[in-house]
Amino acid sequence: MIRVKDLTKKFGEFTAVNNISFEVGPGEIFAFLGPNGAGKTTTIKMLTTLLQPTSGTMEIDGLDARRQANEVRKRFGIVFQDPSLDGDLTAYENMELHAVFYHVPRKIRGERTEQLLRLFDLWERRNEQVKLFSGGMKRRLEIARGLLHTPKILFLDEPTLGLDPQTRNQLWTHVKHLNQTEGVTVFLTTHYMDEADRVAQRVAIIDHGKIVAEDSPQGLKQQTGADSLEEAFLALTGSTIRDEAASSADQMRQFAKMWGNRR
Amino acid sequence: MSVIYILWLRELRRYVRSRAQIVASLGQPLLYLVVLGFGMGPVFQKAGQGNYLQFVAPGVMGMTVLFSSVFSGMGLLWDRQFGFLKETLVAPVPRIQIMLGRTLGAATVAVVQGLLVVVVCVIAGFRAVHLQTVPLALLFMALIACLFSALGTAIGSTLQNMQGFQLIMSFLVMPIFFLSGALYPLNGLPKALSVLTSLDPLTYGVDGLRATLIGRQHFGVVTDGLVLAVVAALLLAIGSRLFSKIQV
């Protein structure tokens, strides 16, 4: 379903992703793990056509992600790591926009929107502007929106960041259900190793832009002689803390605060 | 089609919900209209040019549409910052449709804002001379709005963050306004200034508005309309090209 070969992304002198290759089979739940700044999000951005790679090839459902970008976009859904909602619109309007973008037929649009907003406990507040929501609610809305159309591949970039255990549980149950009933391939990143252990069939660990291990959670534990995936992760990536440069989006957010945040 | 519509609708929804901003954006036109309009009035009259309020009102309308459409077009920057841009860029929709929806939305907002200023002008004492050409004035407003919304989108596509915003304001938007003849007549200008004004697309917009509202023209309605339409089409093409190249 996803086939990546010799993928490299350089930002000037800095190599964010260094010549990685991997494959994800159809219907698989694949966890892409790594410390901060290891290259996870950059990889997802390239796979989802938001960023052009410096070199290498990416195939999504047999299509070239660089040349057939629009066809590729029809095949996946994504929940981003950082916010991507329109704060001036209501929760319902955000869902509506997404449904139009992904050509969800009008008939099932309303039905699915209601079902998902109820599932993530947002239905009562569907007509409020998103900027009035708490962080957790926004996160839940992002996830509900990402599940609105049924893609072949679902990218989840740290979807549970800042969520309470209840919602996390809800999310993974739903994702597993989608995977089992509709055969959706899932590509996820997370910092919670227990989640990866619970849902993923295969795990790749990336560090400093290179894949350092790739196996089932069980296999990784055996390979490192660890009891949990977290221990295995630390054994493979060491325990030094990484720095991550502030992205231009972060800088802009600060700038916007200075100017009295319009949204 | 529905993608263009929903993005157009989004711009309108956002505009209607930002009431404070609507009121705030009426402040500057009001200053130009009332203070300049009445302040310069006597001198203008003595120079044999007639009523300055009548003269400057179409200029102020043009200015409002210019500012409003460039800002709305550059709303792209805010979307980039708040992440919504990503949501639109991964959608399985040709980017030209996204660009068109946004730009048309921004242009519509600018025309609405322009119409609000028309109301303010009328309250201040402005009167259109030929009522039958007023619909044509609306067309000119729409052309100005499309042109500068496309310009705003083009700029928004290339800027990474808000730092460049002031630069664009001081070295592009303000010069476009001051060189447009919105505030002064175009005849008898020094050669250099005359050349610069004729290179400014807003000049033709203001001239078109003036021709249709108070029957005073420099280039003529046909030239005005043609120049605006051609430049708008050009900027739309450039804008959609730049927009399709955005990476986040």
Structural commentary:
The complex is a heterodimer of chains A (263) and B (248). Chain A is an alpha/beta fold and 263 residues long. Chain A has a domain at 1-75 and 151-233: P-loop containing nucleotide triphosphate hydrolases (Rossmann fold), CATH 3.40.50. Chain A is built from ten helices and ten strands. Chain A has a six-stranded mixed beta sheet, with helices on both faces. In chain A, strands 2-1-4-5 form a four-stranded antiparallel beta sheet. In chain A, strand 1 and strand 2 form a beta hairpin. In chain A, helix 8 packs across helix 9 (229-237). The model of chain A has no long low-confidence stretch (mean pLDDT 89). Chain B has 248 residues and is mainly α. Chain B is 79% helix and 0% strand. Chain B has twelve helices and no strands. The mean pLDDT of chain B is 93. Chain B has one domain. The chains are: A alpha/beta (263), B mainly alpha (248). The interface between A and B is large, with 40 and 33 residues.
Write the layout of secondary structure elements.
The complex is a heterodimer of chains A (263) and B (248).
Chain A: E1 2-11, E2 14-24, E3 29-33, H1 40-47, E4 55-60, E5 63-64, H2 69-73, E6 76-79, H3 91-101, H4 106-119, H5 135-146, E7 153-157, H6 165-182, E8 185-189, H7 193-199, E9 202-207, E10 210-215, H8 217-224, H9 229-237, H10 248-258
Parallel strand pairs in A: 3-8, 3-9, 6-7, 7-8
Antiparallel strand pairs in A: 1-2, 1-4, 4-5, 9-10
Helix pairs in contact in A: 3-4, 3-5, 8-9
Chain B: H1 2-17, H2 19-39, H3 41-46, H4 52-73, H5 75-82, H6 84-89, H7 95-124, H8 134-158, H9 163-178, H10 191-199, H11 201-214, H12 221-244
